[in-house]
Amino acid sequence: MPQPVQNEVSGQDLAQLEQFRTACARLILELKHVIVGQDQVVEEVLVAMFSRGHCLLEGVPGLAKTLLVRTLAQALSLEFKRIQFTPDLMPSDIVGTEILREDRATGERQFVFVRGPLFANVVLADEINRTPPKTQAALLEAMQEHRVTAGGKEHILTEPFLVLATQNPIEQEGTYPLPEAQLDRFMFHVKVDYPSFDEEVEVVRRTTVRRDQKVDKVLSGEDIIALQNLVYCIPVPDHVYQYAVTLVRKTRKNDPQSPQYVRDWVAWGAGPRASQYLILGAKARSILYGRGYASVEDVKAVARPVLRHRILLNFNAEAEGQTSDAVIERLLTEVPGIEE
């Protein structure tokens, strides 16, 4: 986890906060020029990006996941790369490789590192569960360390660095599901659902005529880095810290305070990284909503994408048709949160 840069909001940070709040509103407006609906998905992706986190997007094909990521990169003046994950994709295909190159002037030969598609600000890892574990591990190492190793040398990735990986929830043949320990590297597991009737009509209307979908650039890479630093400066009341930790601990069946249905259905609950991401996500969301502090409501809003891939259910839950989202909904209803 990145370390905090400050502990409280200064006068200069307050001015930045208002500036970024306005910019975020413009950014969402630009995205809506291209993306119809999916407001919750857009919010969760932005919160993850501002928190220096990565997202796993899950949804059936045709729900504009790729379009959303590409449009976001355009609106942020960021370099975008898409990697189509396949069973024959090797780590060097995404990280890069060293090649032997000859200097025409001197005739000398030397190894030169050719960067792979990971060297971009926004990387779309399309169908991450279709590539073998070795390649998945190379991507996840880059996500965690923001650097890669090739030929015994470390290469620093370009900041800001955001990975949005997709996976199809339907087709599971010929796939390599991510282990729970690797899923934990993603800050959010975002569910991309079907649009409403009116939204789908608008999608068809927009995409079946000639239309110039121009996206204005709202924020630069430097602005994003400054905003990410500002997230760590957002204050959090003690009761919000306590609420986030209480919520996470109640997902563990061995905790004395966990409810009976958690003990009956959950094999493994969320770890401390979930508590960290709940607070970071709450801080980032507070900027989107123009507040200078994180609240219990912010924690509740990010609880689903933070926890759904960190709660592993057992056979009893599967037999009863229960899901991790159902457990989260019950916990959000039952765990009390005290607002100031």
Overall description:
This protein has 340 residues and is an alpha/beta fold. It folds into 2 domains: 1-89 and 117-233, Rossmann fold, CATH 3.40.50; 234-340, Helicase, Ruva Protein, domain 3, CATH 1.10.8. The chain contains 14 helices and 11 strands. It has helices at residues 11-32, 39-50, 65-75, 91-95, 133-145, 180-183, 197-207, 221-231, 238-249, 260-265, 272-288, 296-307, 315-319, 324-334, and strands at 55-58, 80-84, 96-102, 109-115, 122-126, 147-150, 153-156, 162-167, 188-191, 266-268, 312-313. A 5-stranded parallel beta sheet has the order 2-5-8-1-9. α9 (238-249) packs across α11 (272-288), α11 (272-288) packs across α12 (296-307) and α12 (296-307) packs antiparallel against α14 (324-334). The longest helix has 22 residues, at 11-32. It is globular, with a radius of gyration of 21 Å. The protein starts with 10 loop residues before the first helix and ends in a 6-residue tail after the last helix.
Q: At CATH's second level, what is the architecture of the largest domain?
A: 3-Layer(aba) Sandwich
The assembly state of the depicted protein chains is single chain
Which fold does the CATH topology of the largest domain refer to? Answer: Rossmann fold
Number of strands: 11
State the fourth-level CATH superfamily of the largest domain.
P-loop containing nucleotide triphosphate hydrolases
Keyword list:
single chain, 340 residues, alpha/beta, Rossmann fold, Helicase, Ruva Protein, domain 3, 2 domains, five-stranded parallel sheet, 14 helices, globular
